[in-house]
Amino acid sequence: ILISMPSQKSYNVFTVSILGFLFTLHAVFPAYISSTFLAQFTGEESVGLVYSVSAILAIVSFFGLYRVLNRIGNYRTALLLMSLEFIALIGLSVFNSGWLVIPLFAIIFVAVALVGFNIDLFLEEVSNEKATGKIRGQFLTVVNIAWIVAPILTSMIMTNGDYWKIYLTAAIVLLPTIYLTHHNLRGFIDPKYPKINLKTTIRQIKSDTNIFGVFVVSFLMQFFFAWMVIYTPLYLHDHIHFSWKEIGTMFSIMLLPFVFIELPLGRLADSRFGEKEIMSIGLIIVALSTAMMSFVVDANVVLWTALLFTTRGGAAMIEIMTETNFFKKISLTQANITSVFRAVRPLANVVSPIIAILLLPIISFKFIFAVLGLIMFLGLRYSLALEDTR
């Protein structure tokens, strides 16, 4: 279904896409309930600190990952991280003490970030530069189906605040992911992974205005995702007073743009339109619709669903264009730059909650979305300056 001509390479793309789907599905199950779950131990105002500390650990891990990759390879590294995460998920489903829950959450956070990078390497090895937009669009479409399915299933599984069921479900879904990796990807051929000298890598990134621009826009997109994943469920559940069943339905509909528009936009980026135009339109849509969330106070499911759907429509445009633009310019041997690119996500998870924590004592909770909308406008300076890759 991913590539029309049957071949070993198309089979590999299909395999990596299914791997991406299963891994994302397991990760999304707890994604939107974790902030509410952790708030039981930390309080609403401090939950962002747990995300920030976890993200710092992920960033540090990224820059030491090349040693592990060169020693045991991407295939074994992915299996090791998935197995470690499986144990941590089981732990969260069993323990109910903050002293245990918070470290286990941090382990899961780091493992998810690093395995995402492992999957990037698998996909890059079977990608074709001329079809990068198509392949990345197909991969993201398959992966994003998990983001739609998981919230609905989560709302069905968790009926009375029994969060342990969600973490146990995530662990169970991780098992076929481990099996698929073990059975199908053992033949992955590793390149020589260069040592990640942070100063040198940052100098390389800054020396290329196009790559630097993509980094900035990608950071803002991940900043948006981090902010929304932590604070939207808290706001909708604790302030607007939607039930988890309503939230699950809204979130599933909200994420539909990632499935329906990324593939066609990826193909358009390969053939007709440049990435920067679509990226810039997406930034405008995200900024305006996110800011509007601060001014909707009624518990109207239809209105909130439409608003959330619009925010993700813009985000989907940004995501596929940053992925396409970046991976057209980067090869598998430039794992140091790819590693830093993927470290943008945990970096955003550090910065985003800290800014929100600083804001919450001085502004009403609802106005943090207006601030986020203003921040997203900053990306236009960089997206409009990009050089298209067609």
Task: Provide keyphrases for this structure.
single chain, 390 residues, mainly alpha, 16 helices, disordered N terminus
What's the quick description here?
The chain is mainly α and 390 residues long. The chain contains 16 helices and no strands.
Topology:
Blueprint: H1 8-28, H2 34-42, H3 47-94, H4 98-125, H5 132-157, H6 164-184, H7 198-207, H8 209-239, H9 244-254, H10 256-260, H11 262-271, H12 275-292, H13 301-329, H14 335-359, H15 368-377, H16 380-383
Helix pairs in contact: 1-4, 1-5, 1-6, 3-4, 3-6, 3-14, 4-14, 5-9, 5-11, 5-13, 8-13, 8-14, 8-15, 9-13, 11-13, 12-13, 12-15
Description:
The chain has 390 residues and is mainly alpha-helical. It is 78% helix and 0% strand. α3 crosses α4. The protein is globular, with a radius of gyration of 20 Å. The two termini are 25 Å apart. The N terminus is likely disordered.
Average pLDDT rating: 86
Shape: globular
* Integer-rounded radius of gyration: 20 Å
Distance between the termini: 25 Å
Number of helices: 16
Number of strands: 0
Q: Based on helices, strands and strand pairing, what is the structural class?
A: mainly alpha
Largest sheet: none
Strand residue percentage: under 5%
Order of helices and strands: HHHHHHHHHHHHHHHH
